[in-house]
Amino acid sequence: MTPSRGSRSPAVAGHKQRRSRRRSRRTPGRDSPPVSALGDFQTLPLEIFQMVLNYLSVKDISTLSMVSKTISGLLVHYISTSAGSRRLLLQDFHRPEPPAPRGGASILEHYRALGLLLKRCTLLLPTRDRLKYVHKVLSGVSCFKLNGCASPLHCLGLQCYGVFLQILTAGWDELECHRVFNFLWELGNLARKVQTVVSSKPGSARRLELRIRLFCRAVLLFSPGSRRSDSAFWLTRILKPWPMVNQARLLYIIFGPVSSRDVVPQEWLMENNARLLLLSGNSICFTFLASKAVNGRAVELARLMVFMALVCEKDLYCMDWAVKMMQKVCKVFSTALERNNFLQCLENTFAHMLMDTLQAVLAGERDEEDSSFLNLFHLVNAQANFHKEILYMAMGDNSSST
Q1: Alpha carbon of 221 to those of 62, 73, 139, 218: distances in Å?
Q2: Which uninterrupted H or E stretch holds 160?
Q3: If DSSP codes are grouped into helix, strand and coil, which group holds residue 179?
Q4: Residue 307: which of 327, 292, 322, 328 has the closest Cα?
């Protein structure tokens, strides 16, 4: 039976069906709808999307932020919400052993991961806008502020802030880090507060000194994992605006003792003062000695020079170094009378120290190490070698004998 005119042969029908299927599988063309930047999240309401985030760790959310710019924007909005703040800004800083958040990480690790999250979410923003956004997010955490915590010595807030900033600014160039420092300095009005403590008597603003110490050390200098070069950069920025005398005071506030019993330490032995100066290098040593010469403190200067000669003798340093330093200091005196007075004080100091040490030996004041006689031995040799170098210099022979 022959097929009717209106019917199709199976072969032709199958061929057209296969061609139809090939057409349905073709690559989307110009008229096809664009793929959403949210991917599968496009079908979720914003509330459900934020509920999903509650089941992710901070590290997972940080990874999610790199999927697309749209998702990153949603995360920025989520972090700014009250639900996001409660979820991400942990504030249990005052327990001896703060409980680990979800995932088992410590609170320091939590804020390290949060720093990476905000670093990635704000990657395309200018530095100033990034800092403003970060400040807006963290402004509700009182323990991150200089005066925000009532018990700063028992609080991990500033340490968490430090690790957060360390991760946030990692890899930033020096200009950006300068902006970070200026932003933090202006935000806490630190310039005025540092001016208060460095210009007042030690101990008169103890609470402010302590808070400046904790902020500088925990936030800028010694966050866990920080490199020495980074700490040196922040320390330079802290000290740079101030004159040397205020820099010294600020260094003491940051690194010095904090116990009330240790605020006023016992006076150092003059020998140890001289040893410290010798180890500080020529520039610092000369600056210190020259200041005494300029201020007319010839007796103190002479006593210090004698002990420097004694240290050179005891520690086997070249005695000509002490003589050359003395010669350099003598040029600071404005008149020959002042210089001669200093030289007279120097010789008198040698004589008085020798007599005192000899008297101690004759009086039988000895300890287990027989230090009185040993001190006399070193002092006599120090005076002899010191004057020997002066004679060499006076006779025009700068080379000392061996």
Answers
A1: 26, 32, 21, 6
A2: helix 157-169
A3: helix
A4: 322
- Report the C-alpha gap between 47 and 81 in whole angstroms: 12
* pLDDT at residue 396, as a whole number: 78
Structure tokens at 168: 């946030």
Q: DSSP states of 53-118 as a string? A: HTTS-HHHHHHHTTS-HHHHHHHHHHHHSHHHHHHH------SSSPPP-TTS--HHHHHHHHHHHH
C-alpha–C-alpha distance, residues 314 and 302, integer Å: 19
Question: What is d(CA 37, CA 52) in angstroms, rounded to the nearest whole number?
Answer: 18
Comparing 287 with 42, the larger pLDDT belongs to 287
Could you tell me the residue ranges of all domains in the chain? 270-394
* Exposure letters 150-169 (e unless 16+ CB within 10 A, then b): eebeebbbbbbbbbbbbbbb
Report which of 239, 319, 231 is spatially closest to residue 278, judged by C-alpha positions: 319
Cα distance between residue 100 and residue 88, in whole Å: 13
Q: What average pLDDT does range 292-316 have in this prediction?
A: 92
Q: Which own/partner pairs from 342-346 qualify as long-range (CB within 8 Å, at least 24 positions apart)?
A: 342/293, 342/298, 342/301, 342/302, 345/298, 345/299, 345/301, 345/302, 345/303, 346/302, 346/305, 346/306
pLDDT band, very low/low/confident/very high, at 27 (cuts 50, 70, 90): very low
Q: Are 49 and 74 in contact (CB under 8 A)?
A: yes
Average confidence (pLDDT) over 180-187: 92
Q: Can you read off the two tokens belonging to residue 305?
A: 């020079």
- Is 293 strand, coil or helix? helix
pTM for the whole thing? 0.57
- Per-residue pLDDT tens over the stretch 90-147: 988 986 554 454 444 689 999 999 999 999 998 888 999 999 999 999 988 999 998 8
Provide the pLDDT for residue 258. 67
| Token reading at 34 | 């664009």
